[in-house]
Amino acid sequence: MTAIRIEFLRPDGAVANVASMAPGSDLVDACDASNAPVDFACRAASCTTCRVRVVAGGEAFAAPGGMEHELLRAVRAPAAVRFACVARAADAVAADVVLKLMPLGPCA
């Protein structure tokens, strides 16, 4: 099974942390396992604290599920934004995909 490489970026674009996740797994678990620089509060797609911008590799994600889809719509998030607490990797991912994420924090 192909692991997805995740690079968490600082605001200046430098890599702050590297993690990996298996296809079909949850991003929150990869964040927890690697001490990623993403803040979490509710862990239920309602507070927006874990908001991240997908800089590259978005094809590694499955489409947003019900809760995430509703929250993305409610906050009028651009297409490149996901919520790390509920984002899930796609079941099939190309071997060379690198997912680059920039933590954004809660919506203002």
Q: In sequence order, what are the helices and strands, one letter per element?
A: EEHEHEE
- Average the pLDDT over all residues and give the rounded result: 92
Query: Beta fraction of the residues?
Result: 25-35%
Poorly predicted residue ranges: none
Binned, the helix content reads 10-25%
Gross geometry: globular
Q: Characterize the biggest β-sheet.
A: 5 strands, mixed
Radius of gyration: 13 Å
* Individual helix count: 2
Q: What would you call the structural class?
A: alpha+beta
Instruction: Output the strand order for the largest sheet.
Output: 2-1-5-3-4
> Got a strand count?
5
- Terminal residue distance: 39 Å
Tell me what you see in this structure.
The chain is α+β, with helices and mostly antiparallel strands and 108 residues long. The protein has 2 helices and 5 strands; from the N terminus they run ββαβαββ. It has a 5-stranded mixed beta sheet, with helices on one face. The model has no long low-confidence stretch (mean pLDDT 92).
Question: Summary?
Answer:
With 108 residues, the chain is α+β, with helices and mostly antiparallel strands. The chain is built from 2 helices and 5 strands.
List key phrases describing it.
2 helices; single chain; globular; alpha+beta
In terms of topology, how is this protein built?
Elements: E1 4-9, E2 15-21, H1 27-34, E3 51-56, H2 66-74, E4 81-83, E5 98-103
Parallel strand pairs: 1-5
Antiparallel strand pairs: 1-2, 3-4, 3-5
